[in-house]
Amino acid sequence: MKKTIIILACMLATAMATAQEHNFTINGTNLPRKIKNGKTIVLCDIQNNDSVGSGIIKKGNFTINGNTDTVFMGYITDRHQLFIPITIEPYMTASIDVRNYVVGGSPLNDQLNRYVHGYMYCKKQRDNAYYFGPKREEERFQDSINAFHEVSGWQIFNDNADNVVGAYVLYNLFNGIVNRGDYYSDTVSHRRKMVDSIYATSSPVVRNFLLNRQVYEKSQHQQAVAIGKQFVDFAGIDRASHDTVSLSRLISGHVAIVDFWASWCGPCRQEIKQYLKPLYEKYSDSGLVIVGVGVWDNENNFDKAINDLELPYSQLIDLTGKTASSLYGFVSIPQVFLIDRNGTMLGKYRGEELVRETETALKKQYVPSQISSAQ
Fold first, then answer.
1. Which residues pair with 53 in a beta bridge?
2. I want to staple 263 with a disulfide (CB 3.0 to 4.6 A). Which of 65, 89, 196, 305 is the partner?
3. Which residues, other chains included, contact 59 with Cβ-Cβ below 8 Å and sequence gap of 6+?
4. Which residues, other chains included, contact 85 with Cβ-Cβ below 8 Å and sequence gap of 6+?
5. Does one domain contain both 207 and 284?
6. Domain shared by 267 and 299, yes or no
């Protein structure tokens, strides 16, 4: 009897240790054929991208085991093309139909599946059109994403406004608003007010979700440089003198174009060659100033690009990699801003629109006013 009790105790201890070692499991099935056996599938925390578990694909399936003592939003990835959000909870067993973007295994994942299945399906179609289809197909599927958010996204958020599913859904809804090209415009101030109001009145789990805090901060920076506001000053390393120079020192009292770009950015270089250089050559004697600002670049590559493009106007580089982009609220380049002689933001333009708006600004009379001081 004593021996039996000892054996049972050992079995119980082993079971408890196993449960503590792996308190959640994710089983993935129905993978696309292009994701081959032997590849590693990783589970990451969506807020910091840290890996919290992984599994090897065997016979078209994978299993990931891990531990957590809290509920968090993660995503499944092959570090290449696969991205499927999933809610992770202690002591859960979740399932993912990878090809169909169906996530299950808990009430929260059932809620997340309402969003993931609709949004990710539309996104997959749009991305395929971007890489393989005509422009009109990409636009059509982008319209379907916007329609899904307008109809279903807000409903799913409202149904989950106090949990991580709602936090993740709101992040995507906010991104769709803040990343619109016209968000800097004074004609969309109602959208900025909506973002402010929803964020301020959301539950703590939604407000404290790192991605929501980041997109909200981005919104605040964009509002700071919206049309009609004074430009935001910052300093960079001048490529001619190698001194630290403020933007205000270079543009004060002038109609100015501020072009955020990088040596590796093809569209940036095309914008420079086709529009910025010709504008400068035509209107520099009429008071136009152009300042290029290198972001997410290094000095050697940036200087080489300046020489290759034979740029005749001032160039700064933001070696921090984040100051300029944070202050002006952008995550992609090129970003080209037009500022009038009084230091007032006129807008964010590209191409022929930039040419027209610059010519209009140069015709307006200069009315002296206080320009932002250098930092």
1. 43
2. 305
3. 37
4. 46, 73, 74, 75, 103, 112, 116, 168
5. no
6. yes
Instruction: Identify the CATH number of the domain in which residue 309 sits.
Output: 3.40.30.10
∠ Cα 215 99 176 (to 5°): 20
Is the pLDDT confidence value at 345 over 70? yes
Q: How confident is the model at residue 369 (pLDDT cuts 50, 70, 90)?
A: very low
Are 24 and 67 within 8 A, CB to CB?
A: yes
Query: Token digits for 110?
Result: 């059932």
- Domain count for the chain: 3
- The answer to whether 185 and 226 are in contact (CB under 8 A) is yes
Q: Give the tens place of pLDDT for each residue, 121-145.
A: 777 766 766 666 666 666 666 666 7
Closest CA to 209 of 258, 159, 174: 174
Task: Name the token pair of 323.
Answer: 């100051």
Cα separation, 238 vs 263, in Å, equals 16
Closest CA to 374 of 284, 291, 251, 287: 251
Dihedral sign for Cα atoms in the order 156, 161, 162, 163 = positive
**Residue 212 CA to its chain's centroid (Å):** 11
Distance CA 82, CA 80 (A): 6
Q: Cα angle at 75 between 106 and 202, to 5 degrees?
A: 70
DSSP state of 319: T
Residues 218 and 264 in one domain: no
Spell out the residues 6+ positions from residue 328 whose beta carbon is closer than 8 angstroms to its own.
Answer: 221, 222, 225, 232, 260, 335, 337
C-alpha to C-alpha distance for 126 and 133, rounded to whole angstroms? 9
Show the tokens assigned to 106.
């808990």
Q: Return mean pLDDT, the chain.
A: 84
Domain that holds residue 40: 19-100
Residues 30 and 143 in one domain: no
Q: Are 349 and 338 in contact (CB under 8 A)?
A: yes
Q: What is the pTM of this model?
A: 0.68
d(CA 147, CA 144): 5
Backbone angles phi, psi at 251, to 5 degrees: -115, -5
Q: CA-CA distances (angstroms) from residue 188 to 143, 178, 222?
A: 19, 10, 12
Residue 174 tokens read as: 């906010």
